Amino acid sequence: MLNTPFTYMPTGADWLRILPELIVFGAALLVLLADLFIPNGRKGWLAMVCLLGVIAALIGVGYLLSNGDSQTAFYGMISDDTLALFSDLLILFAVGIGLLYSPGYIERHAVTRIGEYYGLMLLAALGMMLMASATNLMLIFVGLEALSLSLYILCAIELTRFRSQEAGMKYFILSSFASAILLYGMAMLYGSTGTTSLSGVQAFFAPGRHPFLATSGYGPLLLAAMGLLGVGFCFKVSAIPFQAWTPDVYVGAPTSVTAFMSVGTKVAAFVALSRVFLLALGAQSDKWEPVFWIVAILTMLGGNLMAVVQRDVKRLLAYSSIANAGYMLVAIATNTQHAFSGLLIFLATYTVMNVGAFGIVLALERNDGQGTTLDDFAGLAKRRPGVAAAMAIILFALAGVPPSAGFVGKYYVFQAAIVGNHIDLAVIGILTSVLGMYYYLRVIWAMYFTEPRNVSGGAGAIAATTGMAGEDEGEPEPADAASGASVAPVRAGTATLARPVTSRRSANSRTVVATQAPAESAAPPLTLGTTVALTLAVVLTVALGLIPGPIVMLAEQAARLLGQ
Amino acid sequence: MDFVSYAWVIPALPLAAMILIFFGTRPLEMLARRRASGETAGAGHSAGHDHDASATDAHASPAVSAQGEDTHGASHSGGHSENGGATPFWAMAGSVIGVVAMVLAFFVAVGVLVEFLTTKDNNLIQHGQYIFLFDWFRFGNLDYTIAFRVDQLTAVMLVVVTGVSMLVHLYSIGYMEGDPGYSRFFIELALFTVAMLILVLGANFLVLFIGWELVGLSSYLLVGFWFDAAPEPPGSDLDLPYPPAAALKAFLTTRLGDFGFMIGILILFFSTGTFDFGALNSAATYTHVNQVALTAAMILVFCGAVGKSAQFPLHVWLPDAMAGPTPVSALIHAATMVAAGVYLVARLFPLYHFAAGPQSLEVVGYVGGFTALFAATIALVQNDIKKVLAYSTISQLGYMFVGLAVGPNNALGIFHLFTHAFFKALLFLGSGAVIHALGTQDMRKMGGLARYIPITAATFLVATLSISGFPFFAGFFSKDPIIGQAFDYGTTHGGNYTLYGLTIVTAFLTAFYMFRAYFLTFGGRYGQIAGFWGAERAYRGEAHPHPPSWVMWLPLVILAFPAALAGYWSSFANFLTKGATPAVNISDYINSAFSDKLTLIGIVVALAGIALAWLMYGVQALPAKVFTGNPIGKGIHALLMHKYYMDDLYRLIIKYVVLGLAHLTVLFDRYIIDGIVNGSGMAVRGLGAATRRTESGNTQGYGAAIFGGALIILLLLFFAVGVLKL
Amino acid sequence: MVTLNSFLVLGAILFCIGLFGALSKRNAVAILMSIEIMLNAVNITLVGYSSAFMGHTHGERLTGQIFAIFIITVAAAEAAVALAMIIAIYRRRSTIDIGEINLMRW
């Protein structure tokens, strides 16, 4: 045994089991290659190639869902179980929507490295898929780094916008810092169990396997391993107190990338987290459950609280994604098969809603990355009724109003929490959801029930520009609790100042049209890809709310992994 | 042919018609109308007025539209050329689509019923057949299924709903002619039908509730159909409801009952874990269920039926629902809305009868019996023909609930629902023809109309005989057993004959007020055949009555047959109870009906009611002053005229109690809740503002937070497990 | 005699040095180097465990070393990406002080 040479020959079946990953990888290489031959100005074709690759990979996932054998491949490194395929589905959907958003965004924001952009999108998706399918700590790490490295570059790819580079830099430093912590945890887990394979870890803790474990305890090593792994994963899913990078990176990154990464990373990280903790370390749940219990509460409270005071919708969505991570952590802390399927359903609903929400932000922001504050959303329903309606549907869903996708996700997670004896978490979750309703519905209020601020009118223009400049300098907004009361009169004041201007102008309708024209051009019309993607997101948001049956079935099938 | 498997086409057909009209003919009609008005504007002379008239009818002539019904009648009696306008081609096409769809649906429904009557398949007889099953979603052990199922009860309801709806569709072509909302009307009519079909086809509470709410919604739309009608003209004392207000009243009043209904469903669901009627109605489900909770749940479910079926004290919406077009009233009163409550109780009959405590059915019976008498007394003095019919519906629904409460099975109540659907639809369509002919619904301005509209009069007479319980007519066969059974119920319940008393008195009143309405409308003093037929001298109005077109009288004639003959379905109970009661052949059935002394009492009572009505209104040998001349009679008359002041009572309650409470809560809200909310709002924003400070933008600050968090988590783990100790 | 404990202690000390550097240095390149130190601390720990498992039947003997090779590869890629970004930032702002890169906050 000691000196047997190691031999392992991958079979055809092994390759088949990673079919979707192979297709995405192939498409990424193809894009990088095709980039050399496609002249500038026609780079839109690259998006087409990517999309075809994504669709082919989706077909691959479909094939494996119906014909797969749910086995591990490559010496227990990777699996094509339903859980892996379920997350592949979500990741591919997210990257597909992100790709649909991309051509329009690239055109407006003068991204020069188009070939790399598309190639990295696919490679990031590949990393996510690997991370979600991995059944070995090593491959989890490789997948994690593949997705992180791609995303660092994607975040920083807008060379003309400094916020983009700042986002890339911040993401890089913090993420690799967290990766190092995660790796240290992996090393310790390897040290205490002698294996990096998740099934090996699970077998190590099997009852009766190591009788000394039950009596003499585990020593600090295993505890440290679990703690460090938990920290690493909590960073990736942006749980408080490891969330700090999230808003800055989401806001700074190109919006098409944000739409994709905000959901893709979450799916990959949550699935890997559940594989490691729920599955491999399931026998040790009495140790780690309290940790996730605290983190879940902190995340739900903190995410929602910080979102309440945001006035920039893109940043608000970033905080809302933190809050949503809190709801998902409720399922982790509950730690039942039931809760796990709830988590997967929540991930699915969150995916369709969030890509849609960031898509709206993308449709509205101006070329300098501004134009997404609540004031810019004011009166949107009159200016762009279609976009406003889509946003309203998605925000209602995010707020969890039945019968939308958001409600379905929350329903399953909280129901599982109650059944799993975590009424405390469910109650906090529901209460913080109410808080969430406030800031989501405030955006709807702004879109439908407030008048647009007249940007070109005298006083309004000054207020708007100073507000914007203040943001750019990083000045704190005067929106504290104490000064909240004083802000309102000021705003009312500007409104009354602006109103005579408009009414005087309305005497001459031609002038009004002329003054409104620049505001219109600031928010460019939707491209075909964006329209398709938004429609898809909205339709799915509604459909998942009305007919959750299929996704619930798939999630329950994927969650059966825990029962084995 | 296997009709049962194809029963899904029954709701699908009106649904398809609705979609076709909505997306097909209605846009085409609008296009054509715009083109027509464009041409007239271009041509610039008055020749275009005819095309335009239909579009602007109600909007351009508010002076004429004194009130919905009146507008309507006036537009016809006042002459077509001025106001009526022809129905546009595409609108007409849409209505034809609707009628065709309903005819097909009716035939399938009849096929289903016939198949149930003739089948030898015991499984089909005992369990019915699922025609549509869709796992909406399933989570853990909770199962939400969309399921449609056909069984005997559903088959009967399908025939009733599609049959009445088909005739109402046909009738509406004539009645709604030239109305600017013609296409909208047919869309909403189809929606109403679909909703009711979903309700009766649903195999569990989930589907039933969807249908239930859709029925509420579509009735809201239809009652408020003439939403732009002007308020009642001065000088009229008919107290005509204002359509939008009536629609709202219907919606809100039924919602009140639905509140209890929902709680009842939830109690049932949480104590049994299922929505499915099959499981709910089987006794095995209740071995572990608390009977008190179950009884409470059933009474709460009955609250929903009280709202929908307009029982006391939630009956107030139904008379006001007359504000809708008369065909809608016919549909609401005969087959759809109000039948839903009775259907609900019948559907859950095993639950009421076997599982829950006896209190639940007692509540059903006494509410029904009281309502029957209560509504009948109000109907005695109404002058508005539709109001008389409305209160008679409330009263008859009371009978149905009594029938369900006292019967050994649900056949008594449903049989009365079945026959009532035909004669009540006939009555309403007949009254619609009268209103259409005269432009008023005030019976004091009618009389002797049989002379002018004989078909309407003859069919109305058939329905009146039927509802009065005149021997050999349908109503007799369905109503008399209820009264008889109420007597038996009294005998077995320690001689408490309250229900019998209520029903037999109501039978007398019913015969009286229905014939009063008939004499006042069609016959009366100076009429032929001792007041039973009309004459020109007997007519008290001014407008010239004109006979209805064939699309209007044809449904009347068709309906007259079941209204007279539906009672001869001798084996109805046998059919509905899946053979649990013995089948009866027709001669035994009639013999047994007349061999009973109780029946004879019933006949005598009915005849007495008719005779009194004839004396008072047919020949006017006994003037009404005999009763209203003395102070007591006068007081009673005023009390009845004002419907026991129920509406005023509710108005007062709303004004002083509800609004008073509202004012109090506003104060409470302003000074206490707002304080708390604003305080907590401030606290939340403060907390948010404070926590956002942690997002300093400083990368290494974030890193430090990660490190700190990691440290805390590690310490927590070590302390929790006991590796470290304080 | 180099025992497992020596490996682990060395790894822990290196990890802490890297951690301290990553949190205290202002220069982006120095932070990058600190993170590399953290990764190498993990490598040492892994290799230590790996060699400790050599004499035992329990444990996968080579996994730690293979893992370390993976980490070295990824660290190289990280360094490349990070340096590229640092250069791009330096071009725009003429500084690589991480404390000054804070446009976005709150």
Describe this structure in words.
The complex is a heterotrimer of chains A (564), B (726) and C (106). By secondary structure, chain A is mostly helical. Chain A has helices at 12-17, 19-37, 44-67, 82-109, 114-133, 137-155, 162-193, 198-204, 211-216, 219-236, 245-252, 255-280, 285-308, 313-334, 337-364, 374-377, 380-383, 385-399, 405-419, 423-449, 458-473, 481-506, 509-522, 528-546, 549-563, and strands spanning 72-73, 78-79. Helices cover 70% and strands 3% of the residues of chain B. In chain B, strands 1-2 form a two-stranded antiparallel ribbon. In chain B, helix 5 (89-118) packs parallel to helix 8 (182-201) and helix 21 (474-492) packs across helix 26 (597-618). The longest helix of chain B has 47 residues, at 646-692. In chain C, helix 1 (4-24) packs antiparallel against helix 2 (28-53) and helix 2 runs antiparallel to helix 3. The radius of gyration of chain C is 18 Å and the shape is elongated. Chains in contact: A-B, A-C, B-C. Chains A and B meet through helix 7, helix 10, helix 11, helix 13 and helix 19 of A and strand 1, helix 29 and helix 30 of B.
Would you identify the CATH architecture of chain C?
Orthogonal Bundle
Radius of gyration of chain B: 29 Å
Structural class designation of chain C? mainly alpha
Taken in chain order, the helices and strands of chain C follow as HHH
Largest sheet of chain B: 2 strands, antiparallel
Quaternary structure of the protein:
heterotrimer
Which radius of gyration of chain C do the C-alpha atoms yield?
18 Å
Number of discrete helical segments of chain C: 3
Shape of chain C: elongated
Helix content of chain B: over 70%
User: Class by helix and strand content of chain B?
Assistant: mainly alpha
Distance between the termini of chain B: 83 Å
Model regions low in confidence, pLDDT < 50 over at least 5 residues of chain B: 42-84
Strand residue content of chain C? under 5%
Number of helical regions of chain B: 30
CATH topology of chain C: Helix Hairpins
Counting structural domains of chain C, the number is 1
